[in-house]
Amino acid sequence: MSAETLNKNIETVKDVLKKYLEERGHRKTPERFAIIEEIYSTDEHFNIDWLYMKMKEKNYRVSRATIYNTIEILLDANLVRKHQFGEGQQSLYEKSYYAKQHDHILLLDTGEVIEFCDPRIQTIKDSLQEIFNIDIESHSLYFYARKKK
Ligand SMILES: [Zn+2]
């Protein structure tokens, strides 16, 4: 992605966030916009500690509570996706606004997360909707794997 596209995308999600905060009467603090900017500047899955560290590096005075609180807002606004890859593991998050539908493979030895997109999953969804006469709103699918020796 070019720097120009990235900046345009960040401006767009900031507008989405601004509208969301206004509609609900939440405060539009600079920290919230700095947090979303950080999130949309990375392609990685991240945890709260990572975000906290990034904000500190940029000399923002934000507490972990502020980060948790902002993440809750971003989840509700559908700007962020949350993953719980394993029991007792920290939640991981990722940006979701421009992200294409994808699923995840978690490598158990390294903790590395691989993203993949397979159109057959859409085919399964379509067929389930037909069979059970339902509308599927979302799904989560994780494969837990080890690299072949
Ligand atoms: Zn992902």
UniProtKB/TrEMBL annotation:
Q: Give the main localization category.
A: cytoplasm
* Alphabetized UniProt keyword annotations: Cytoplasm, DNA-binding, Iron, Metal-binding, Repressor, Transcription, Transcription regulation, Zinc
GO cellular-component terms in the record? cytosol
Gene3D superfamilies, A to Z: 3.30.1490.190, Winged helix-like DNA-binding domain superfamily/Winged helix DNA-binding domain (1.10.10.10)
Q: Which residues bind Fe cation?
A: D103, H139
Which Gene Ontology MF annotations are present?
A: DNA-binding transcription factor activity; transcription cis-regulatory region binding; zinc ion binding
**How, per the record, is the cofactor bound?**
Binds 1 Mn(2+) or Fe(2+) ion per subunit.
Question: Where is this protein found?
Answer: Cytoplasm
Which cofactors must be present for this protein to function? Mn(2+); Fe(2+)
For this entry, list what GO says about its biological process. Answer: negative regulation of DNA-templated transcription; regulation of secondary metabolite biosynthetic process
Q: Please give the family membership noted in the entry.
A: Belongs to the Fur family.
Q: How does it assemble?
A: Homodimer.
- This chain's protein is named Ferric uptake regulation protein
Q: Which species is this record about?
A: Apibacter muscae
